[in-house]
């Protein structure tokens, strides 16, 4: 199945979702220092989107590589980096089948982007592609959305953000039409941008897949190349997943063997 999900409003997306990223990047840096068995200098951001994590890591001195399926995102991110005086190696590519000319010391995949992989076969192919890209002793850190029950109702969030003269109103909802066999559900997003009195609306609907923690461990073992290090509830180094009540987001740390 060809997986093309072209984000055609990267500027609105970047404004709407540019929140809570400092804490997430602090967590990533903590993991690099705490769990890697090699110095982390070069980092791959998989499904990097408009670069909320990539840009902040570049600002902290990491040499960044960005991979995304959307050419619009990559072009927008390149312009964003240039405006800030930073550089990165930016690649348009599929997270299930990519190769880097130079390996990295760590990789990350944020915002539940792995959820776009709708089968075990795709996820295993992804893990093997990441293992090829990461040096031994390096890390792979990713987050996955969790639910406590198949009967959880659809969840919805709405918010607005302003940057200069641009206002973006966003709404996002998940867990529509959950299939308990495939673990696939639908997510909907609407971005309304208002600038100088002009209104533009961008809508997107796509499928995503949830995984449970023990599935993650089993698929990592099946793919090979990584060892399990630890998992957390959210981006909180003190909050181990097993000790968390009603976790909604698991953040997984793997180390390249």
Q: Which quaternary structure do these chains form?
A: single chain
| Biggest sheet architecture | 7 strands, mixed
| Order of secondary-structure elements | HHEHEHEEHEEEEEHEE
Number of domains: 2
Number of strands: 11
Mean pLDDT: 93
Q: Please state roughly what percent of the residues sit in beta strands, choosing from under 5%, 5-15%, 15-25%, 25-35%, 35-45% or over 45%.
A: 35-45%
Strand order of the largest sheet: 3-2-1-4-5-11-10
Can you describe what's shown?
Strands 3-2-1-4-5-11-10 form a 7-stranded mixed beta sheet, with helices on both faces. A 4-stranded antiparallel beta sheet has the order 6-7-8-9, covered by helices on one side. Helix 2 crosses helix 3 (52-59) and helix 5 (120-133) packs across helix 6 (213-223). The radius of gyration is 18 Å and the shape is globular. It has helices spanning 10-16, 21-35, 52-59, 71-84, 120-133, 213-223; strands at 42-46, 63-68, 89-92, 104-109, 134-145, 155-163, 166-179, 184-195, 198-209, 226-233, 249-256. The chain has 6 helices and 11 strands. It folds into 2 domains: 10-147 and 210-256, Rossmann fold, CATH 3.40.50.150; 155-208, N-terminal domain of TfIIb (Single Sheet), CATH 2.20.25. By secondary structure, it is an alpha/beta fold. It starts with 9 loop residues before the first helix and ends with a strand. The longest helix has 15 residues, at 21-35. Residues 1-6 have low confidence and may be disordered.
């Amino acid at each position: 199945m060809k997986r093309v999900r072209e984000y055609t409003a990267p500027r609105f997306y970047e404004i709407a979702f540019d929140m809570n990223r400092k804490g997430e990047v602090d967590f990533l840096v903590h993991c690099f220092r705490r769990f890697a068995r090699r110095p982390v200098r070069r980092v791959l951001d998989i499904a990097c989107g408009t670069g909320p994590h990539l840009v902040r890591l570049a600002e902290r001195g990491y040499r960044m590589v960005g991979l995304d399926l959307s050419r619009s995102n990559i072009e927008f991110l390149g312009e964003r980096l240039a405006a800030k005086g930073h550089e990165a190696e930016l690649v348009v590519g599929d997270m299930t089948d990519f190769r880097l000319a130079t390996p990295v010391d760590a990789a990350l995949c944020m915002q539940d982007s792995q959820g776009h992989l709708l089968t075990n076969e795709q996820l295993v192919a992804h893990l093997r592609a990441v293992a090829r890209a990461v040096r031994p002793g390096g890390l792979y850190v990713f987050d996955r959305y969790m639910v406590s029950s198949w009967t959880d109702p659809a969840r919805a969030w709405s918010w607005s953000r302003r940057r200069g003269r641009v206002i973006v109103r966003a709404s996002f909802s998940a867990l529509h039409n959950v299939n308990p066999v495939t673990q696939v559900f639908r997510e909907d997003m609407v971005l309304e941008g208002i600038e100088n009195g002009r209104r533009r609306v961008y809508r997107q609907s796509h499928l995503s897949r949830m995984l449970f923690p023990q599935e993650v461990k089993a698929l990592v073992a099946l793919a090979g190349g990584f060892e399990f290090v630890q998992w957390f509830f959210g981006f909180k180094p003190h909050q181990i997943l097993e000790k968390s009540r009603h976790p909604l987001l698991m953040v997984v740390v793997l180390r390249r063997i």
